[in-house]
Structures are given as C-alpha cells and as structure tokens.
Amino acid sequence: xxxxxxxxxxxxxxxxxxxxxxxxxxxxxxxxxxxxxxxxxxxxxxxxxxxxxxxxxxxxxxxxxxxxxxxxxxxxxxxxxxxxxxxxxxxxxxxxxxxxxxxxxxxxxxxxxxxxxxxxxxxxxxxxxxxxxxxxxxxxxxxxxxxxxxxxxxxxxxxxxxxxxxxxxxxxxxxxxxxxxxxxxxxxxxxxxxxxxxxxxxxxxxxxxxx
Length: 211
Description:
Number of helices: 5
Protein name: DUF4145 domain-containing protein
Number of domains: 2
CATH topology of the largest domain: Four Helix Bundle (Hemerythrin (Met), subunit A)
Helix content: 40-55%
Shape: flat
Distance between the termini: 68 Å
InterPro entries: DUF4145
Domain DUF4145: 106-189
Structural class: alpha+beta
Radius of gyration: 22 Å
Organism: Vibrio algivorus
Pfam family, one: DUF4145
CATH architecture of the largest domain: Up-down Bundle
C-alpha cells in the first residue's frame, strides 16, 4: 500500500474518543501541543489520520499513538486490552493471565489460548491439586473451591481450547480466533473472581453495615 502524507491543520483535527489502554478510563484523548496529526491517503483513495494523544485522566496521562480511518476504525498503541481486576489474585496467576490478555490484544490468539490454559495450571497448583494431568487436577479442584457448576464445566472447555491451540492434530475447535479467545478470557475472569475476589467483596459489604 502506497501513501501520500500531509500534515493536518487544526481544521482536520481528529477526535479520538476511546478507552485508555493504560488506565482503562474512557474519554476524549487530548491532543499534544504543537504536534499535528498526519493525513494519509492511499492510492485507492482511502483516508487515514495518525497522531499522538494523551489520556485525559491526569493521574494516568499516558502517551498514546493512534491511527483512525474515515470509516471510524481505530488502532491504538499501546493496544487496548480487555479490562482485568487483579486484586487479591496470587502473583503467578496474575502474571500468567495478564500475558493471555496481552497476547489477545496483539491478536496472537493461539498464544493467548495457551496462556489461558497455563492460568488454569497455576490455579490448580495454588490450590494444591496434584492429579497426573490437567483434567484430573480440575476434577480435584472441585473439592478445593466453590464454583457454580457451569464454571466447573467451563474449566474443561478452556482446557480443551488451550490443547487445540498447542497441538495441531487437535480438532475440538475448528478455529482459535478472536471470538473464541475473548470468551475464554471473560470466563477465566469470572473463575478468578469467584475463587479469589468474591469473599473479599462480601466482607467489604459486611463492613459497611451499621454496628
């Protein structure tokens, strides 16, 4: 793709309203003083704008690069990630799951699915489940944590997804793409919330009761 590049003047200022990929707050990103946007035109006539912005949250103030198309398509760097509350989650599990989220943001979906499966391995290890394989360890996990039946079933679906991502001969999932991995990450968030965060949330609510 060949481009013609022109500096944009103030009349071509591009509004970039999105979620900050660093702090997670939504808003209109702030243009950096004296740094103009660039207008890019392909030989096919498609128009894009690229430039730099700051997060409007003064506690964050992240420096963000963007490309925005005339069809309102938006690409950010750092990449926008799925929101994840890491409170009370053990550091090894948090680090592994954060890597799954980063891989997803970078569109490395097979790698993300593998790291979701690794997150389950870390969870089972944290709860001292010692079965000979992940299937057995997940079954053993049922006696260690309290989860809805649906989430225990989901643990095995996540295990299979991770297996398919790692082994080319597996055929349970026809595709390891954005939709499959997005759902896997959302389910994993709910599992981690139930195991590590729910008790804390309930205790916080109880602490607000009148004595």
